[in-house]
Amino acid sequence: MTGPGTQGPGDEFRLPDVGEGLDQAEIVEWLVAEGDTVDRDQPLVEILTDKSQTQLPSPKAGVIKRLGFVEGDMAEVGQVLVQFQGVDFDADPASVPVTAQIQTTGGTEQALERRPKASPAVRRRALDAGIDLASLNGTGPGGRITVDDLDRALTVPADAPQVAASTKIPVAQIPPPRPAANLTLGQMAPGRHQLRGIRRVTAESMTRAIAIPHIHGADEFDASALLSGRKRIKDLHPEGAARLTPLAFFVMAVADGLRRYPMINASIDTALDTALDTAGLDTEGPDTEGPDQKAAGHIDVHEAVNIGIAVATDAGLVVPVIRDADRRSLFDLAEEIHRLTTAARERTISTADMQGGTCTITNYGSLGGRFATPMIRPPEASIVGFGSIRVRPIVVDGAVAARPTLPISIAVDHRLIDGDLMTAFQEHIIGLLTDPVALLAR
Amino acid sequence: MVVGEVAGRADVVVIGAGPGGYVAALRCADLLDVKNTGARVVIIEREAIGGVCLNVGCIPSKVLIHSAHVADLANHSADWGVELTARIDIERLHAHRRSTIAELTGGVATLLDHAGVERWQGSARFSKPDRLAVVSGDDVRHLEFASCIIATGSRPSALHSLPVDGERVVDSTGALEFETVPNTLVVVGGGYIGVELGTAWAKLGASVTIIEGSTSLLPAMDRRLSRVVEKRLAELGVTVVLDTFVNGIEDPLLVDADRIIVAVGRTPNTNELGLDIANVPVDSAGHITVGPDRRATPKIYAIGDVTAGPALAHKATAEAEVAAHVIAGRPAAFDPAAIPEIVFSDPEVASIGLTEASAANQGIEAAVFRFPFAAGSRSRTLGDTAGFVQLVADEAGTIIGAQLAGAGVSELAGEMALAIEMSATVDDIAATIHPHPTMSEAIAEAAHGLGGLPLHVRR
Description:
CATH superfamily of the largest domain in chain B: FAD/NAD(P)-binding domain
Distance between the termini of chain B: 80 Å
Shape of chain A: globular
CATH class of the largest domain in chain B: Alpha Beta
CATH topology of the largest domain in chain B: FAD/NAD(P)-binding domain
Number of domains of chain A: 3
Number of domains of chain B: 3
Number of helices of chain A: 12
Number of helices of chain B: 13
CATH superfamily of the largest domain in chain A: Chloramphenicol acetyltransferase-like domain
Number of strands of chain B: 19
Structural class of chain A: alpha+beta
Helix content of chain A: 25-40%
Oligomer: heterodimer
CATH topology of the largest domain in chain A: Chloramphenicol Acetyltransferase
CATH class of the largest domain in chain A: Alpha Beta
Strand content of chain A: 15-25%
Mean pLDDT of chain A: 76
């Protein structure tokens, strides 16, 4: 623990917690050697855990002094993987002026790399949205990254081709936007329209979605307990009754399902996505053994349960996100749904309220319709749809009875989730919605 | 008591109730909504709530420094048309210090109680990677945790050649509690603690010598700042001996000293926690190594003086916010543009962000402008024109650093920290109306100077 000649804390790279509840990983392959000069974010090593194989990027630019393991070793979280060359304090501590020793631990200076200019509020938003400020160009004074710069980066996914906004089409060809009032459900007038706004974002998202191998499940269940339970709660709490829609119950049940089965609350990056983005759906299905795919794929199992709710607006589909849906009470969910859907329809919703979803609910049944095959919104891995509640024949206690029934249609990413897990997830949701006491007691 | 009994379980355990630990506990209680969710947040303190900062550090030293400042003002008051004579009542001074501490620590305890944080008295030690043994007298309690924040702070570093005896040779804690003003006082160590304590006791009447091993006082600060302080110390009659190491208690420099203060830095309190049992990584200086999210292991976080960086209360507090947010599942990182460093010397000095030299080390061709308080008006009305405001800007005109020396400049450090965090430009500051007549006008003056249009400067 003590002794001269050791490195400062910034000069070591330790196996980070890879966020899968695992505490060790196999060193599969070193991508650098001792003595190499590496850039920040350059992949250093490929590791394999029980759940995924992934590359770890360098936390800083520097020269590799020592590799802590050989290929094939198991490393534990917190163990030193790489030692960088740094400032050596090889001098005998006794000969160093005492206050100079304080100074060595007292520096607040950053590493050589220039710090992106941005206010603390912008930094916080970037962190929330998972955006590296170093990747943005600031348009503010002195190159400062502004809120607007961040918003632009958030509306155009980093890996999506930058279309529309920069594509100049002669203005004469573009029909002026028509008032939306008489063009419900996002209808457009005949003629060519520039692909922009929500339509463009939806188009880009769905183009990427088609690369996801969907599997679908569907069922229909007795909703009478849900409806009577909801009525009873509304009677008990008339003040919150108006906003207590069935959707609040749906969100609560799905959130609990995601908590129960975290793999559904996840994202996968096979590293094939980029290729598929440009080539469309890969028709050479079986040929997926390429080394590239193996090299960079990873799975992120998300800690937070953030549920998007699809809201149809005049301008198109908007999906605001209910954060930490698994930690909210029923009335809290109802309030948040009301706030978000109102803001979405009034087009006052903030970018922050649209980010960070880990699963989406589509309440397609609000317009009618029983079963559907909803599309997953990447990088999410699942979508849960609810049809319209209608009185239908259903078998109750061995006899056919007329009961309100609720159809459910779900889709999951089969790269990540197999059919058995999908069914378990669906059954979990159905179980909670057919027994609202169990739902509220969760 | 049988060791290994059934352990209680807490969602968050914070070890240490200083300015890092108590803030971490309060914030965890908020973010985990303990009152509604039943989540359990426990804070363990082996000594007094408030830690070093409130009990034997920042706060009591500022009480001493303020009293000394009042005595010094009295000595100069005749110049301003008021004849006062200072008479030091050391017992009243200590009583005032103790009551100030009691009020503040009592306030912290009340905040913790009302937030729903459980307070435990005792020494904590890891018995497993997710379990602590908490010893209080003969009593041992066990506590399992989902998350743990280590915030055990630091203690004064010892000099083997000059052991503290609590009588003639004291550390920074003992230096607050002299029962009489010493006739002759030697301070070993010319960092911020040594300068603050030496200056205060000199103003209270001691004949003070400060001995520093490097070639300037406040060696962590810009040399121009320490020169201002050295000049004032000379006026106060303090002897400053630089580039010199004391050689044990028999050193000729020490033989005449009634009291000797050893103030040679601080050592992190990481050696009695059983960190190896919990696989918590520690570097050669004894600091726990953490990521920007303050995580040392998947379940254990560390904040404040037990980690690298300046041993400052406000750094610990800021890191506490980060750790609490991460534990609550919200993304957060400790990534400040500047950690203000203040010395309550005479005059006060403050350094925020980069200096000219440290900017050059980063490859930044910095522009620097220094506006002296002697050219300002407020400093004259205060009868103290020492010092300056120095701004450092990068090539694009963004403010990246500020160094200040002068009366009360500690209160100007917040503006400079905000400017740096916001990436404010020279023009932003120059165009912000600073109130007249205040010391803060010098900041705008320095910005005007950096922009090429200095105002109250002879052309």
